[in-house]
Amino acid sequence: MMGYEQHCKWMTQAIALAAEAGVAGEVPVGALIVGPEGSCIATAGNQRERQHDPTAHAEILVLQQAARHLQRWQLQDCTLYVTLEPCPMCAGAIVQARLGELVYGADDPKTGAVRTVLNLPDSAASFHRLKVLGGILEADCRQQLQSWFAQRR
């Protein structure tokens, strides 16, 4: 079990990944997965624009990388860190991967599907009970997104 400082360390790295995505013209969302040994096994920022792929969200990309790294699709002993609460597509993929824990930064009042708009992990549609911790470095994550969008208006 990781403590608050460890969660902040990993979220800081996710924020850096989000910044890289933002510089590349993507909505700045970053994600990483910490594997069973306690080290980072997958990193990504959003890549929808660069890949011309509506599914290239940071969460989907790290789930794919982690599964390849571990040579299995079940990630019950892994923790996913992401700067923004996952959308319905990503929340569904997280449940399908049997992820052990999800840690996210800012709530998403428009499309959040973990706690804010929907609660997919705790719904009848989910056969897997996901441990969720939201609000880690929330202000930093929210500010990063707000600044990026403000520069584009």
Task: Give structural notes.
- This protein is an alpha/beta fold and 153 residues long.
- 40% of the residues lie in helices and 18% in strands.
- Helix 1 (4-23) packs parallel to helix 5 (138-152).
- The relative contact order is 0.16.
**Secondary structural class:** alpha/beta
Distance between the termini: 42 Å
Please give the count of helices: 5
Strand proportion: 15-25%
Radius of gyration: 14 Å
- Enumerate the strands of the largest sheet in spatial order, edge to edge or round the barrel: 2-1-3-4-5
State the total count of DSSP E strands: 5
Order of helices and strands: HEEHHEHEEH
Helix content: 25-40%
- Sheet with the most strands, sense and barrel status: 5 strands, mixed
Low-confidence stretches: none
What does the overall shape look like?
A: globular
**Average pLDDT, to the nearest integer?**
96
Describe how the helices and strands are arranged:
Blueprint: H1 4-23, E1 30-34, E2 40-45, H2 48-51, H3 58-70, E3 79-84, H4 88-96, E4 101-106, E5 131-134, H5 138-152
Parallel strand pairs: 3-4, 4-5
Antiparallel strand pairs: 1-2, 1-3
Q: Which structural traits does this protein have?
A:
5 strands, about 150 residues, alpha/beta
What would a concise description of this structure say?
By secondary structure, the chain is an alpha/beta fold. The chain is built from 5 helices and 5 strands.
